Amino acid sequence: DTAVSQTPKYLVTQMGNDKSIKCEQNLGHDTMYWYKQDSKKFLKIMFSYNNKELIINETVPNRFSPKSPDKAHLNLHINSLELGDSAVYFCASSQDSGGETQYFGPGTRLLVL
Amino acid sequence: TQLLEQSPQFLSIQEGENLTVYCNSSSVFSSLQWYRQEPGEGPVLLVTVVTGGEVKKLKRLTFQFGDARKDSSLHITAAQPGDTGLYLCAGAPGNQFYFGTGTSLTVIP
Fold first, then answer.
1. Which of A21, A39, A42, A43 to mutate to probe the B interface, most B CBs <10 Å?
2. What is the 3-state secondary structure (H, E, C) of chain B?
3. For A49, nearest residue in chain B (alpha carbons)
4. What single string gives the DSSP state of each residue in A16-55?
């Protein structure tokens, strides 16, 4: 069974559209994350979220919003997509938020045209 | 300037050669992690170093945490094509987690 799964794997869309990426973890972890990996392979945290606290990287545009229906899911919603949003988005989870091992999903490759 | 700077950024070597990747910061970390990311996949944890001066070995990979806990290194002995990938150091000096700038390693058969 896949520990952290993401859908879709590929997403091609037009500028201005709204899209969502789904993430599920079956590890029973309390904390989930969203990362953006740019074309230079730099991995930057966007959000970390557990039952109690959402930590937002202040550099993330408010067009991006995490939505967590339950502890096992953290979806990423993006409004008014821009060309610069093209990247690979990774979901990850960890037992807690204290720097423990993070388990990553396979990534969602987003291309905005 | 990123919180965790890695060098070199790119490395292409022949099978059997040795190499060292560096991860440096001006911040102190309680621990540092090393991940490897293969093409088309997410990063996977290799090791966590916790104590200043600590050395950990994982088969042909040797990880060292600096005495001041501001830097770390990864040494690979007799590199194999299967070592090809993006190597990332990572840590949380406060309540936010940061990844390093990455080292892309290619081992040529």
1. A43
2. CCCCEEECCEEEEECCCCEEEEEECCCCCCCEEEEEECCCCCCEEEEEECCCCCEEEECCEEEEECCCCCEEEEEECCCCHHHCEEEEEEECCCCCCEECCCEEEEEEC
3. B96
4. T--EEEEEEE-S--SEEEEEEE-TT--EEEEEEE-SS-EE
Using an 8 Å CB-CB cutoff, list chain B residues near A99.
30-31, 33, 91-92, 97
Q: Which two tokens stand for residue B88?
A: 């990332």
Encode pLDDT of A45-77 as tens digits.
Answer: 998 888 767 877 778 999 999 988 888 999 999
SS3 A71: coil
Q: Enumerate residues 25 to 64 of chain B having a beta carbon within 8 A of any beta carbon in chain A.
A: 30-31, 33, 37, 40-45, 48
Place of tokens 């993401």: A6
Reference A4, options A102, A103, A109, A112; nearest CA is: A103
User: Tokens representing B32?
Assistant: 């540092």
B85 touches chain A (CB under 8 A): no
pLDDT digits (tens, 9 = 90+) for B4-53: 999 999 999 999 999 999 999 999 998 999 999 999 899 999 999 999 99
